[in-house]
Amino acid sequence: MMLTIENLSNEIDGKAILKGLSLSIKAGEIHAIMGPNGAGKSTLAYTLGGRPGYEVTGGSATFEGADLFGMEPHERAAAGLFLGFQYPVEIPGVSNLQFLRESLNAQRRARGEKELNGGEFIKLAKEKAALLGLDMEMLKRPVNVGFSGGEKKRAEMVHMGILDPKLAILDETDSGLDIDALKIVGAGINAIMRQKPGGPDKAVLLITHYQRLLDYVRPDHVHVLAGGRIVKSGGPELALELEREGYAEVIAA
Amino acid sequence: MTLALPTRRQEEWRYSDLDALAAIWPVPAPTRIDVAAGDIAHHHLLQDAGEGAAAVHDYVIDIADGGRCDFHVLNIGGKFGRVTLTVTLGKGAHFELNGAIIGGGDQVLEIISSVTHAQPDATSGQTIRSILGGHATGSYLGSINVARDAQRTDAFQSVKAMLLDRTTTANAKPELEIYADDVKCAHGATVGELDKAALFYMASRGMDPATAKTLLLQAFVAGVFGAVPDEALRERFEGAALARLEALV
Ligand SMILES: Nc1ncnc2c1ncn2[C@@H]1O[C@H](COP(=O)(O)OP(=O)(O)O)[C@@H](O)[C@H]1O
Ligand SMILES: [Mg+2]
Q1: Range of the domain at A47
Q2: Which ligand is nearest to the CA of A15?
């Protein structure tokens, strides 16, 4: 197993959000989580990422054999976890290139790998920006500042391409994208995160409201999250059923 | 010149470390800078006194008609580091101060300016950025005095402090004394902390806390030394600021 979440409970400001959530993801798999607003989807992503204030009150998460909650957020990233944010954060005064180079090299230092020099890094950044159809000029600008919703999501996928994680948890990466951008981002996710024969282990957890992203990034498993736990799991057909009948109907069934 | 040690009752010494000051009192006479009519002058001070030391640097700057003086200060050294600038502007003259205070431990660092617009059409701009950690105190006291004849004066002060710990103290005191009526004086002061959402975003990409904080703080002071005309000097200031930051985070 790449990620095993067992009976996870958490609190934000003393309020229980996740209430005994279990989920396992094998290398090579793509999982989708769908669920109504306020179900706890973002909370799950942030809790796995280690966001301060998201207090784990029970259960466990094991990532590649290691206790995820025993690691600091930056250590989780260096171990191969990537979080795509529903609302990417703006950082005035820090360029995307500087941000990404510091991030990548911090991860490489933590893993005992050689840091990339300026030239090597720019080459990698150009390649990944081209993959996501993002102008290199955008990467010279401060992180997410003045980016449209769609540009932020593309930029996040450039982050993912450069950092090359093992497990990507993508929280509503499809929101704010027009149809063309959705296609490009979907193809980008496949190019970066699909496990290749003989390649390193990869897996994806997609959090989404809509079937449309799943047309491009076809999931192996679909889960419904409601009231802080997984209430239903199935194959790709479950997403279609949800789209057709709505959460309330499917959860009740 | 008075030789009596100042007291905290004197406004311009209100936040100073008078114990540290006593060790070097009386301080030498101020450095005089005279900028001739129409001249452009660049001056700078890197106050990086050794640990525990006290340092006071006083400047008296006269800028004649149409002259301009650009002053860059980085105030980072010693137990007590004080920089004062007493500036008088002639007709159409310009004074520009860009300063950074970066302190930790129990350092007391201050920049005190008094800018007098004595004649019409003079302009002044002051940009101060402070980063404080530990129990440090950083102060900016800036008075602007506009004489009765000094119509069309245009002056601004932009003061921002970033506090790394709750145990620091940042003081920003503007003081305006205006006797002319056609005057623009703008003042902005903010005190903030590092953006937690940004820090988590950076951590989620793999940056350790020290790297992330350093990057945010560098962005915060970027620009203070951007206009230093000599590249080697600019790099020296930026390098000294970065080294001080790295020691704080
Ligand atoms: N910072 C917070 N403080 C308090 N409650 C929060 C906070 N963030 C989220 N919540 C609550 O947690 C619940 C789950 O939110 P979230 O995980 O964002 O849902 P989803 O992503 O599924 O729409 C909601 O009831 C929301 O109001
Ligand atoms: Mg959400």
Answers
A1: 3-252
A2: 1
